[in-house]
Every structure is written in C-alpha cells, then in structure tokens.
C-alpha cells in the first residue's frame, strides 16, 4: 500500500503539471497545433483502449467474476462520464449567439467539468496502482497522452472566454489538483475491502472506454484527407502497442 501510495502521488502530481502545457499555444500557430494534436488524439485513443483490454479487464477477471456488481460499477462509470459531459455541453453556445457573459459562464463550466474529470483521473490512477506498478504505469501513460491535447484545448477555451494567459494557467492548474483528491478517495475506499479495488478498476475501464469511444474516435472521423487518416490509424495502433511492453512488468 505504501509503495502504491507513493507511485500514485508522483504520477498524479506529474499529470497535474500537464495543466501548464497550455502555455505552448503562445509559441505555435493554430494550424500547426491542430495538425500535431490530432495525432496525439489518435495515440491517446489507442492507449486508452489498449489499457482497458490489455491491463484493466484482465486484472478484473483475475480478481473477481464479472458479476452484476462489477457490471454495475462499469455502467456507473459510463453514466458519470456522460453526466459530466452533458453538464458542460448544456452550457455551450455558438460564437454568434454568445454574449461575453455567456462565454465567461461557459469557461467556468469548463473548469468545473475539468475538476470532476481530473478527480476521476486520480481515482483511475490510484486504483490501477493498487493492483500493480505496471497497471498503474499503463493507466498513467494513457491519462498523460489524453491530457496533453485536452489541457492545450482547455487553455484556448479559457483565453477565448476572456481569461488572461496568467489567470488561465492558474485556473487550469488548480482544477488539475483535484486529481490528488480523487487518488486519496480511491485509497480511502480501498482500505475497507479489497473488493473495492475491483469496482474501482471497472469504473476506471468504463471511464477510458467512454472518453476514447465518444470523444476521441469521433474527433478522428472528422479528418477527410486519406493520407492523414492513414497516419491517424498508425498512431492509434501505436497507442495500443505502447501498452504491451508493460505486461512484462506484471510478471
């Protein structure tokens, strides 16, 4: 438990620092960032699916039967992800309809949604490290690959909503710190029964499948250029393959 706690703390702290990556948008033009980030989205989607089917689900099957309780935890994870996304989208508005007040309200909703999302990231990373360092590292890598384009995008949204560069970075970083609270919450639950580890893993797997399947994959389908689409597929496969070497650490 002590090892798992230390590794979780280091991983979650590292992931939280990614919130400062928004500053890179100040040094690159938008077309270049858009080209690079879409490939990050590809590798992120592959890594999330890879982590679920190579690490998380096999670990669940080792520790427990895939019974109604585990299925319920899985469905609960998808439901929570869906609700968080709906809360943000309900407060969205198109540029031509948005007043300055609307834009500012939307940016605060983005920060709220991110805080909850980061809290869940903390749960995902902690529950993975509770199983083994290899599973924890796999989940951390999947989260990192997703957070890089996500944090850069959030920074751009905050700037568009009227935040200064400094305020946007600080706000993004504070919302990222909720991942630490999520990790502590996971360890708190795991103290009471080992069965909670299985439920937390199911929750983590559901979260990854939801993000990869409903957010990342649809974004990739927007690419109509065949050459770039092929490169996306290659990066997606690379994301899955990144999860394979970590199996060696589990043995």
From TrEMBL:
Pfam families: Zip. Coiled coil: none annotated. InterPro entries: ZIP. Keywords: Membrane, Transmembrane, Transmembrane helix. GO terms for cellular component: membrane. GO terms for molecular function: metal ion transmembrane transporter activity. The chain crosses the membrane at residues 6-29, 36-54, 66-84, 169-192, 198-217, 229-249. It is found in: Membrane. It is a multi-pass membrane protein. PANTHER family: ZINC TRANSPORTER SLC39A7 HISTIDINE-RICH MEMBRANE PROTEIN KE4 (PTHR16950), ZINC TRANSPORTER ZIP13 (PTHR16950:SF16). This is ZIP family metal transporter.
């Amino acid at each position: 438990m002590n090892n798992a706690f230390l590794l979780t703390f280091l991983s979650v702290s590292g992931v939280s620092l990614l919130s400062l990556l928004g500053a890179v948008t100040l040094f690159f033009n938008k077309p270049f960032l858009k080209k690079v980030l879409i490939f990050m989205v590809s590798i992120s989607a592959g890594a999330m699916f890879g982590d679920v089917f190579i690490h998380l689900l096999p670990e669940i099957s080792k520790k427990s039967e895939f019974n109604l309780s585990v299925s319920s935890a899985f469905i609960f994870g998808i439901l929570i992800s869906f609700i968080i996304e709906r809360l943000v989208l309900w407060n969205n508005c198109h540029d031509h309809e948005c007043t300055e007040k609307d834009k500012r309200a939307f940016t605060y909703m983005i920060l709220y949604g991110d805080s909850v999302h980061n809290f869940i990231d903390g749960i995902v990373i902690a529950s993975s490290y509770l199983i083994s360092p290899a599973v924890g590292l796999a989940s951390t890598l999947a989260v990192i690959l997703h957070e890089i384009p996500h944090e850069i995008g959030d920074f751009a949204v905050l700037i568009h909503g009227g935040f200064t560069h400094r305020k946007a970075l600080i706000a993004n970083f504070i919302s990222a710190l909720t991942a630490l609270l999520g990790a502590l919450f996971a360890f708190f639950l795991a103290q009471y029964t080992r069965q909670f580890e299985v439920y937390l893993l199911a929750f983590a797997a559901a979260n990854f499948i939801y993000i990869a399947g409903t957010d990342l994959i649809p974004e990739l389908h927007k690419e109509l250029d065949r050459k770039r689409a092929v490169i996306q597929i290659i990066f997606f496969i690379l994301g899955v393959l990144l999860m394979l070497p970590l199996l060696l650490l589990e043995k």
